[in-house]
């Protein structure tokens, strides 16, 4: 899906989108391929403050250059597009999980880190401390649901194509504060 269509799909699904800089051409494609893309991955940022979070996810930090995702979903439910193409968000994960996402089947436990997820997933970082105490406002949860459904609708995927980082890479806990099973149910309902 070209960047312009991605933007259109998100807006068609009712997401409030903020375009950040030259997001359409900001990517890590020079270090490896992006695609084939098979799913959507949801993360939390472990940050506070929308402006800081968006800047960090766009630019990255020492040792991990940006973009760190395709979109940053802030507490107010806005989706800040910071990159398009390969992004440093998923890292290495479990090939069995990828096969389940492709087949749209129940996910096995993630017990390996042997497959490049940056190649295969759209990534959304969600502003949250990730401590299990920081609240998830309904506007933010609604935006996660909408962007996930928009991408699934475009590709003809169902809700099983949306996973959390914790379901992909051993040792990850994000997103923390809601379950991905619950979010997938919301996405399933939206896709009806």
From TrEMBL:
Domain N-acetylmuramoyl-L-alanine amidase, chain residue ranges per copy: 23-176
InterPro entries: Amidase/PGRP_sf, Amidase_domain
Transmembrane segments: none
GO biological process: peptidoglycan catabolic process
Entry GO MF terms: N-acetylmuramoyl-L-alanine amidase activity
Domain of life, source organism: Bacteria
SUPFAM superfamilies: N-acetylmuramoyl-L-alanine amidase-like
Protein name: N-acetylmuramoyl-L-alanine amidase
Organism: Streptomyces cyaneochromogenes
